[in-house]
Amino acid sequence: MTSVDDARRAYIAMGCLVEPGSRVLGEAVIRHGPIEALRRLLSGTLDSALQGAVAARLPAGDPFSVADAALARAERLGARIVTPLDEEWPARLADLTRISRGRERHERDTYPPLCLWLRGPWPLAEALDRSVAVVGARAATGYGEHVATELAYGLADRGWTVVSGGAYGIDSAAHRGALSAGGVTVAVLACGVDRAYPASNASLFERIAETGLLISEWPPGAEPHRHRFLIRNRVIAAATVGTVVVEAAARSGAIQTLRRASELGRIPMAVPGPVTSAMSVGTHEALRSEEVRLVTGWPHVLEEVGRIGTDLAPVPRGPERLRDRLDPVTAQVLDAVGRRLAGPEQIAASAGVSLPTAMRALSVLTAAGFVVIRDGGYALPRQRPSPAGRGR
Amino acid sequence: MTSVDDARRAYIAMGCLVEPGSRVLGEAVIRHGPIEALRRLLSGTLDSALQGAVAARLPAGDPFSVADAALARAERLGARIVTPLDEEWPARLADLTRISRGRERHERDTYPPLCLWLRGPWPLAEALDRSVAVVGARAATGYGEHVATELAYGLADRGWTVVSGGAYGIDSAAHRGALSAGGVTVAVLACGVDRAYPASNASLFERIAETGLLISEWPPGAEPHRHRFLIRNRVIAAATVGTVVVEAAARSGAIQTLRRASELGRIPMAVPGPVTSAMSVGTHEALRSEEVRLVTGWPHVLEEVGRIGTDLAPVPRGPERLRDRLDPVTAQVLDAVGRRLAGPEQIAASAGVSLPTAMRALSVLTAAGFVVIRDGGYALPRQRPSPAGRGR
User: Fold this and answer.
1) Which residues of A are less than 8 Å from B144 in CB distance?
2) Which CATH number fits domain B322-379: 1.10.10.10, 1.20.120.140, 1.20.1070.10, 3.30.70.330?
3) Which CATH code is given to the segment(s) B115-305?
4) B276 touches chain A (CB under 8 A)
5) Is A296 close to B273, i.e. CB distance below 8 A?
6) Which of B146, B288, B296 lies at the smallest CB-CB distance from A294?
7) Which has the minimum average pLDDT: A63-72, A101-110, B36-45, B95-104?
8) How many angstroms separate the CA atoms of A10 and A16, rounded?
9) Which of A247, A317, B44, B307 has the greatest number of beta carbons closer than 10 A?
10) Does B147 touch chain A if contact means CB atoms closer than 8 Å?
């Protein structure tokens, strides 16, 4: 086991002992740091209800032993635990504090996670750097699943990570589409990363754990309680550059994720469908609000998230720095280059720029090694960077 | 034949001799009045190209004889001619002058019509007072035709006139939906009102001429030239409170009508569809622009046009005056009352107001005779006003 300092162990202990999102605990961590927050939590100085809840999970003993047990358990399961003190913690999650402070007292608290359990080869922050959430109805139609698959394939094929919730229907279609493209997909679960829920998605989750990431705020073994899906949704909204809802009924969790994304300053997007379909009632209502952007496929999504993705990205290191120094138009053209060879006309059309502009950008990109020429077409380099040094 | 003064005859003569929309002629009419504009047109003072075009239609003789012949022909066909000097001229058409002045010289001129040929029992201005255009693709899908029919039925059932272009596909579905509801529908044609184009719509046009209106800027016998559809579209956009596009391919005349409606300050609306359908590519692109409102059915359309319809209406006379004096919320509740009995809960839900608000409004409306109570439900009065004295 690696050496773990007390602050990390305090985060992990709190993550095990308290249901995520707590305002009282979140504010205590911000004001006093994790170690003092944990001390106040246990002594009942913070909140007697919280103290009671903790007591139900920790009848007696050292809270740090809870953390140590969690770390040992993670290791046994091939998982790991990430806290805000770790390099791979996604900086975007901190934005949850701002919107949580603005919420009414009677609403559910939505403070950031205190720690995350992970399974999969990617450093979390890198995997989420250029990511889009694709979510929607469980009871999706064939139309919705088709659209979600195509959307996720296109995004993953262009180097974007597809984040979803691992549920039936749209979520599964999104994960599968990204996997088909050989891309990265992240499933944010409402139960432990060792649980397959729904059970029939077990093999999908195994594939995701091999090439992408399974993540959860709840420790291994945690059940997918109903309220956990709603609290989980804030992580999907906050961790990504934008959220696309493909199908959603009138009162749907996916619409709540979309609203959260909008509150967080992320880009809220929705795919329309037949007005005769109950599974598009929620998306159409969302599209009638002013902020939500109508998208019909991955090119529209890239148009929305393309440049902003770079702005929101955490401080870039290594190969990322080069990309961020591209001017916006060149970056836009790079977004339109995929793993498959394409001619300059096709790239110009996809990027939405003129052919001369695309030609100029492609020569810069080729010279800098972002793009290769083969058989008169352009593509991203075949050699994929290793997970640890992921370039895009 | 009724006594027709020279100014009316001048309008009619110009309507017969010049293709609609001319900027030069439109400005001359505004500056010098129709009689002097006609004199300048014939003498070549205005524009030599226009003079040449007129000469091709009037080799010699008195231009007023053209007007008299047109009036006699209209009478033989059971049609009539309406000019800006007549009481039933729709005041909204004048707005075309403003947007035409803003257009580039290389664009097609879009000045208001100089006269209109009509077949049907309704006074034109009254028929258009509360009207919505429902337009779209000729090569519509079953989905699109279904949606257009439902939309037009719902609008007509609530006393709104449905305006369209008489074409195959969405246009025909819209006319038919309005007719099924026993409502008023207006077909704005790009050929003479005696021509059935497309031919298979002949019986539809006869039904419209019996209970609604067929109207055209072109004299009887005129052919539906290709460019006439585009110039005709400005009348559909200008004459109505708002335009709904149901299905449209990427470069579609219906989208041009929508853009025109937006330029004119009318309400541009579009119905989404499957993103996999080529017939919804144009509507989705339109919905991605900021002004176009997404609507999924007639309740959304009424929400958009309901109150503004009243504002745009020409100076109200008779029973209309009463309605305009209703406060906005009461008018909103009235919009939700249909020909079929409905309970107050249903009306409140449809109007988007609380039940107590709906109850208050319904008691005002019942007392004023706008609404009747039968069997515990509310409905519009059964007795329909005669065409000449149409109340709503």
Assistant:
1) none
2) 1.10.10.10
3) 3.40.50.450
4) yes
5) no
6) B288
7) A101-110
8) 10
9) A247
10) yes
ipTM: 0.71
Residue B200 is given by DSSP the state: G
Q: Give the other-Cβ count within 10 Å of B352's Cβ.
A: 14
Tokens coding B40: 């300048």
pTM over 0.80: no
How do residues A233-284 score in pLDDT, each as one tens digit? 999 999 999 999 999 998 889 999 999 999 999 999 999 999 999 999 999 9
How far lies B164's CA from each of B240, B307, B310, in Å? 10, 22, 21
Amino acid (1-letter code) at residue B66:
V
Chain B residue numbers with beta carbons less than 8 Å from the beta carbon of A145 are none
**Residue A120 confidence (pLDDT) above 50:** yes
> Hey, what are B89's tokens?
């001229």
Residue that has been written with the tokens 């950008």 in this structure: A361
Q: Locate the domains of chain B by residue range.
A: 115-305, 322-379
Instruction: Classify burial at A150, counting beta carbons within 10 Å of its beta carbon; exposed 0-12, middle 13-18, buried 19 or more.
Output: middle
- A272 contact B CB<8A: yes
Contact call for residues B323 and B334 (beta carbons, < 8 A): yes
**Chain A: closest CA distance from residue B290 (Å):** 9
A181 in Cβ contact with A156 (< 8 Å): yes
Closest residue to B275, CB basis, from A272, A281, A293: A272
Q: What is the DSSP string of B56-122?
A: HH-SSS-HHHHHHHHHHHHHHHT-EEE-TTSTTS-GGGGHHHHHHHTS-TTSPP-PPPS-EEEESSS
Res. A329 pLDDT band, cuts 50 70 90: low
pLDDT tens string B106-138: 677 889 999 999 999 999 999 999 999 999 999
Give me the residue label for tokens 């034109």. B124
Residues 6+ apart with CB under 8 A from B52: none
> Which residues are within 8 A (CB) of B204 and not within 5 positions of it... i.e. 6 or more apart?
B166, B172, B175, B176
Of A147, A272, A281, the CB nearest to B284: A272
